[in-house]
Amino acid sequence: MGSGRFRLVGAVCSVWTALWAVCGVRAAWGGQDDWSPPFYAYCVDMPRVQDPPVAEQAKLLARLGFDGVGYPLWLDERLERNLRILDDAGLKVYMLYTPVNVNPDSPPYDQRLPAAIRKLRGRPVTVCVVLRGFPPQDPRGLEPAVHILRRLGDVAAAAGLRISIYHHTGDWAASFIHALEVVEKVNHPQVGVNFNLCHWLKVDGDKDYRPWVEKHAHRIFVVAINGATVGATTWTDGLIQPLDRGDFDNRRLLQTLRQADYRGPIGLMCYGVPEPSREHLERSMKVWRSWQAEWSGARDAGQ
Fold first, then answer.
1. What pLDDT is stored for residue 272 in this prediction?
2. Nearest-angstrom CA–CA distance, 179 and 164
3. Label partner for 251 (CA 20 to 30 A): which of 40, 72, 106, 152?
4. 303 belongs to a structural domain
């Protein structure tokens, strides 16, 4: 009877030990067993290439294992042509970005924009808008921005898409935190915000991003990461590097996103990376796959 009780206690302890181990592995990546965000690249070969050869880039990115791409939003005949090229390469378009002017003295956007959004129906793309027209956070831009974004949100909703503010250094919505404030004012289910690491570090880098990401993950539609050196002031070889360089802890950022149940794509920002595209993309993909292996290990442990 005594030995049976000890065996029972031992079995219970073993179960708790196993559960503890599983929880520990899950905690390392936030506890979301099915978290496997698509990985795409954008600003490849820029700014050195004025008009990037989409067909060549598509072949390279597909060969390296990227899930998709991001580009400026084409508003002419190139849209349908390039979408066919990317479809043929097996790549999805996860983000297309375009400027929007919040200064009422100028047209808010190209008149072709709504039609272009409608042509994207059925794709997992988010249309990202770079808000311009006033200095950063100038209060004159708020009311026009809210009006424009609600209108674009309605266009996107009709096409089954979403609109996201691309916070960009030097423009009206330069700060991620400010962009979140604008989104709250807009209060439209199809309007959210990007989290762009390099611009966060440039504008808001003295703050801890985690409380903002954790609280507003449901409003973050697109994320862009890259290797970065904390405290750097230059883009090239500073705030934008391949994933195997720099001292910013991207794993902690991804862990935060996973814990917050972020379900959008993860982009690799490549703007201004000086090495040949194949070389730096291969290195970043190697790092990404090592992280995927960790997530997979967490899922396996949970089984």
1. 93
2. 9
3. 72
4. no
Is there a single domain that holds both residue 148 and residue 260? yes
Q: Please check the confidence at residue 119 and state whether its pLDDT lies above 70.
A: yes
Q: Which amino acid is at 222?
A: V
| pLDDT per residue as tens digits for the range 11-20 | 333 333 333 3
| C-beta separation of 33 from 298 below 8 A | yes
Task: For residues 5 and 68, state if they share a domain.
Answer: no
Helix, strand or coil, per DSSP, at residue 191: strand
In single-letter form, the type of residue at position 122 comes to G
24 and 141, same domain (yes or no): no
- Is 301 part of any domain? no
Domain match, 90 and 20 both: no
Check whether residue 216 and residue 136 sit in a common domain: yes
Residue type at position 113: L
What is the rounded distance in angstroms from the CA atom of residue 277 to the CA atom of residue 275? 6
Residue 45 structural domain:
35-296
pLDDT digits (tens, 9 = 90+) for 153-167: 999 999 999 999 999
28 versus 187: which is more confidently predicted?
187
Answer yes or no: is 245 within a domain: yes
Structure tokens at 135: 């200095």
Which residue matches tokens 């995927």? 292
Q: Are 282 and 66 in contact (CB under 8 A)?
A: no
C-alpha torsion sign, points 239, 241, 245, 251 = positive
Q: What does 223-289 look like in DSSP terms, one character per residue? A: EEE-B--TT---TBTTTBB-TTSSS--HHHHHHHHHHTT--S-EEEE-TT--S-HHHHHHHHHHHHH
Q: Are residues 107 and 228 in the same domain?
A: yes
Tokens at 262, concatenated? 């972020």
Q: Into how many domains does the chain fold?
A: 2
For CA atoms 172, 175, 179, 185, the dihedral sign is negative
